[in-house]
């Protein structure tokens, strides 16, 4: 039986180009190791986004690009809240389903194969949404943000967490197909989609990057309301 490479190993094993392709769409023999690596390197940022979103009792929360949905449990602390993850990688959907089952969250959490550009969801069905380290892979900001605005009920919140463009340019893999956006550009796109920016936070940490190196990380968290 073959085992996936250790998570710490796989990011060093892959070329920047292949690592970028895996971060965009984890797949194949490396998918699970990539997911574990992302969970470690993105954990603090995800927890910051979840704290900013502050999901309340009985709220329905949507996550775009959750990978293996490692943080669904953190999003479901409030009583009666419900979680839906929309993920473009079928390997991640499978891994997330196994994870939600193992955590006993199946009755409150669901993961579906789908794409941020065309959400197969009715209007105004969500109270909150988040996307962490995912907007780099959207063809444009407009379509997914309009889709998110459509599925959020009036007054609902959206949290976007993404790397500062200057910081991201220091990461070798980000040169391979990542769309990097300035903070002001994302704010403008949110407003154009009919969302009102109501909060911003900078997130800095020193840690291990997806390529295994020690780096000073710099991210932005934007909170908007429908
Ligand atoms: C870099 S990973 C981030 C995963 C997780 N949010 C985190 O913070 O660790 C990006 C994830 O977004 C997913 N993704 C990329 N483009 C997407 C799209 N258009 N719609 C939905 N998910 C997408 C990828 O498959 C991958 O699981």
Describe the structure.
There is one protein chain. This protein has 226 residues and is α/β, with parallel strands linked by helices. The chain has one domain (38-225): Vaccinia Virus protein VP39 (Rossmann fold). 35% of the residues lie in helices and 27% in strands. The chain has 9 helices and 7 strands. It has a 7-stranded mixed sheet with strand order 3-2-1-4-5-7-6. α5 links the parallel β1 (60-64) and β2. It is globular, with a radius of gyration of 16 Å.
| CATH classification class | Alpha Beta
- Spans of at least 5 consecutive residues with low confidence: 1-7
**Strand segment tally:** 7
- Radius of gyration using CA atoms only: 16 Å
Main sheet record = 7 strands, mixed
Give the name of the CATH architecture. 3-Layer(aba) Sandwich
Q: Give the neighbour order of strands across the main sheet.
A: 3-2-1-4-5-7-6
């Amino acid at each position: 039986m073959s085992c996936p490479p250790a998570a710490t190993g796989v990011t060093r094993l892959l070329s920047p180009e292949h690592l970028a392709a895996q971060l965009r769409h984890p797949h194949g023999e490396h998918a699970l190791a990539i997911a574990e690596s992302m969970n470690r390197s993105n954990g603090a940022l995800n927890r910051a986004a979840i704290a900013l979103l502050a999901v309340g009792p009985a709220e329905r929360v949507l996550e775009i690009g959750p990978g293996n949905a490692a943080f669904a449990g953190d999003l479901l602390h409030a009583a009666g809240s419900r979680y839906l993850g929309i993920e473009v990688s079928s390997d991640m959907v499978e891994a997330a389903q196994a994870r939600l089952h193992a955590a006993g969250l199946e009755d409150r959490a669901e993961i579906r194969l789908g794409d941020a550009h065309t959400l197969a969801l009715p209007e105004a069905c969500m109270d909150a949404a988040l996307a962490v380290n995912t907007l780099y892979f959207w063809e444009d900001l407009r379509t997914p943000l309009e889709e998110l605005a459509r599925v959020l009920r009036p007054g609902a919140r959206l949290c976007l967490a993404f790397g500062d463009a200057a910081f991201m340019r220091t990461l070798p893999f980000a040169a391979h197909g990542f769309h990097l956006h300035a903070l002001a550009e994302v704010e403008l796109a949110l407003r154009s989609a009919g969302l009102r920016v109501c909060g911003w936070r900078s997130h800095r940490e020193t840690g291990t990057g997806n390529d295994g190196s020690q780096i000073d990380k710099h991210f932005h968290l934007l909170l908007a309301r429908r």
